[in-house]
Specification:
297 residues; alpha/beta; Rossmann fold; 4-stranded parallel β-sheet; two-stranded antiparallel ribbon
Length: 297
């Protein structure tokens, strides 16, 4: 009798599992960093699928039919905005989705890329998450969107967001403390593409890059020559690779100038679970520690 009762309970649990999964709010995040933020706020009530996964480059992404189907099935689609997902309109139209499209960067003051402005263009820098204060705005927008889509989960979403915001406050202070330990005249960084402007504005580390805010366009010979001259004139000791760009250009610049490769920074994408940046908090912490290790020498 006891064995039969246990078997019945197990069968009931198995039968209930699909229903529980179906009860979760289906959401899509356009890229891995945003997906991590949604997961932290949504918790167990939300199913999060990410269009562009670990180490993926949103600047060169091409939507697939499978992506269109996933977007069609979603209740909420979270995107960065600020021109980051140039392919979004095509994907939404092709999917025919009725999902709410939530721009996570809403309320953030956009900055123009210094390199593009210098060349006469007015290009919005979409990489707002590189400032932890901006990430907190993302979290608030995600929280409010989830509550609107799933009012019954309001208490859980508010509690999750509050706990995560506290972690982001601690992260922001950690970054400031680490940067404070780098001599001001050494806070100059060369990276592959211009993805760290918001970090620069927030924390006082100057970034330059041969490519602009999008890694899709190749750096011109003039841009490369400008960076080489800057490294020599300012005696910049290290250049950094990125996980979403080809390393060969930065390796060439390092050889031409004698600067060393300071390490890899994570700009537009997380790593997988085995890498050094599987979450947003890990990404920011890894980047600032890489900078401190290279610039503090």
């Amino acid at each position: 009798m006891f064995a039969r009762r246990i078997a019945f309970i197990l069968l009931a649990l198995v039968a209930a599992a699909p229903a529980a999964a179906q009860d979760k709010l289906r959401t899509i995040a356009s890229f891995s960093i945003l997906g991590d933020l949604v997961e932290n706020v949504g918790g167990d009530r939300v199913e999060v699928a990410t269009l562009i996964g670990p180490d993926g480059n949103a600047h060169v992404y091409e939507p697939t039919p499978a992506d269109s189907r996933r977007v069609a099935d979603a209740k909420v689609v979270f995107v960065n905005g600020l021109g980051f997902e140039g392919w979004l309109g095509r994907l939404v139209k092709a999917s025919g989705t009725k999902a709410a499209i939530v721009v996570a960067s809403t309320g953030i003051s956009p900055r123009s890329s210094a390199s593009e402005t210098r060349l006469g263009a007015d290009t919005t820098d979409p990489h707002a998450w590189q400032s932890v204060a901006n990430a907190k705005r993302y979290v608030a927008n995600i929280r409010d969107a989830l509550i609107k889509a799933d009012p019954a989960g309001a208490g859980a979403y508010k509690a999750n967001a509050m706990a995560y915001l506290a972690s982001l406050d601690a992260l922001d202070q950690e970054v400031r403390d680490v940067v404070a330990g780098i001599a001001p005249d050494r806070r100059r960084v060369i990276t592959s593409h211009n993805a760290f402007g918001y970090f620069q504005d927030a924390y006082g580390v100057a970034f330059s890059a041969p490519q602009g805010v999008s890694s899709e366009a190749e750096a011109s010979a003039k841009d490369v020559a400008r960076i080489i001259a800057q490294i020599r004139n300012e005696r910049i000791s290290a250049v950094f690779l990125e996980n979403v760009t080809d390393a060969r250009l930065m390796q060439l610049i390092a050889r031409e100038t004698g600067a060393r490769i300071g390490g890899t920074l994570y700009s537009d994408a997380l790593t997988d679970a085995n890498g050094p940046a599987p979450s947003y908090i890990d990404l920011i912490r890894h980047n600032v520690r890489e900078l401190a290790a290279a610039l503090g020498r």
